[in-house]
Design a protein that fits this description.
Number of strands: 13
CATH topology of the largest domain: Aspartate Aminotransferase, domain 2
Number of domains: 2
CATH architecture of the largest domain: 3-Layer(aba) Sandwich
Helix content: 25-40%
């Protein structure tokens, strides 16, 4: 499937790169109350119900105005998305895209149809051009790797296409709390039938190692995810679910803080980057910048050179072979390190 982002991540880890701007792993520490909950619950190592703890599912149901039977707790968002992809015949994916969707489709032998988005259209595709063979469409807003946000007429266009064609709509909302121009997107607020909304506790709360997420939506889709969890994982550990419950209590406070931090980082990084070397589009959501290299250097070549200078980034090829002249930068280090990294990146790309 082209450039292997997972192998490159492992390579950067072995090299002990000091400024890691490659993986989408937040550097902000988890809220102290979440850590206290983990310390208290860590010895609770028995099995949990395969759908998730009742109290956690009840709280999620209250947040979204649904019934608990329409909620399932999953071992990371990948499990829920993979379950939906497994049931598909042809999967639509907006390109560029996080490679995990294509990894799952390839593993299950499902056809993939890419719907191209372009920078001059704010990285938002024309959903009416979606391949007619697609029966399941995965969308991810705020978007990894471009930072695009879906709203207004474009959201309406997507919903009309999904309804007209009877699509299963999978909304990966891992970055739901990282929006900088107002309003979060929760897809089930707009379309419930054949819709699965997936939310991760990894990004907002800095808990990627707990591998916990949830899926909510159409009962048939939720049941399918539940079967997948039972078949592959049994359940999510109780201590992780207790931490997630505490995280939901703190969500507004934590989300406000992480948005403020990321807005400052976006400003610092932009001010430190040489616009003659990189074409920069400010992200409207998430915490990535997808930079086009103006100097003719391939993204994979630049990423390896930067690794030699102590900066880790992912090449654009990881998000689609058409993006060989891009790199993705994850703004997951303090502002001072981002400023230094931007200067190193500009210098190395000019060589």
């Amino acid at each position: 499937m082209g450039f292997d982002i997972y192998e490159f991540f492992a390579e950067l880890s072995r090299m002990n790169i000091p400024i890691r701007l490659d993986a989408g792993q937040p550097d902000l520490p988890p809220h102290p109350e979440i850590l206290e909950t983990l310390k208290r619950e860590i010895y609770n190592l028995g099995y949990a119900p395969s759908r998730g703890l009742d109290e956690l599912r009840q709280r999620i149901a209250e947040i979204h105005g649904v019934e608990p039977r329409e909620v399932v707790v999953t071992p990371g968002s990948k499990a829920a998305i993979a379950a939906a992809i497994y049931a598909a015949r042809t999967v639509g994916i907006v390109a560029p895209s996080w490679p995990g969707y294509r990894v799952a489709a390839g593993f299950f032998g499902r056809r993939v149809s890419l719907l191209k988005a372009r920078p001059e259209e704010d990285w938002l595709p024309d959903f009416t051009l979606l391949d007619k063979r697609v029966d399941t469409l995965v969308v991810n807003y705020p978007h990894n790797p471009t930072g695009a946000v879906l709203a207004g007429d474009k959201l309406r266009e997507l919903l009309d296409v999904a309804e007209d064609r009877g699509l299963v709509l999978i909304s990966d909302e891992a970055y739901r709390d990282y929006t900088y121009s107002g309003g979060e997107l929760v897809m089930i607020d707009h379309r419930f039938e054949k819709t699965l909304t997936v939310y991760s506790f990894s990004k907002t709360f800095s808990l990627p190692g707990l591998r916990i997420a949830y899926a909510v939506g159409d009962p048939e889709l939720v049941d399918r995810v539940h079967w997948f969890v039972k078949a592959a994982y049994t359940s999510v550990p109780i201590f992780a679910q207790k931490a997630a419950l505490k995280a939901l209590e703190l969500r507004e406070e934590v989300a406000e803080k992480v948005r403020a931090v990321m807005l400052e980082r976006i400003r610092v990084f932009k001010d430190s980057l040489d616009p003659g070397v990189f074409e920069y589009r400010e992200p409207r959501g998430a915490f990535y910048t997808f930079l086009r290299i103006r100097t003719g250097v391939r993204g994979s070549e630049l990423a390896r050179k930067l690794a030699g200078r102590g900066v880790g980034v992912f090449p654009g090829e990881a998000f689609g072979k058409e993006y060989a002249d891009y790199i993705r930068v994850s703004l997951t280090r303090p502002a001072g390190e981002l400023a230094l990294a931007a200067k190193i990146m500009s210098e190395v790309a000019r060589l």
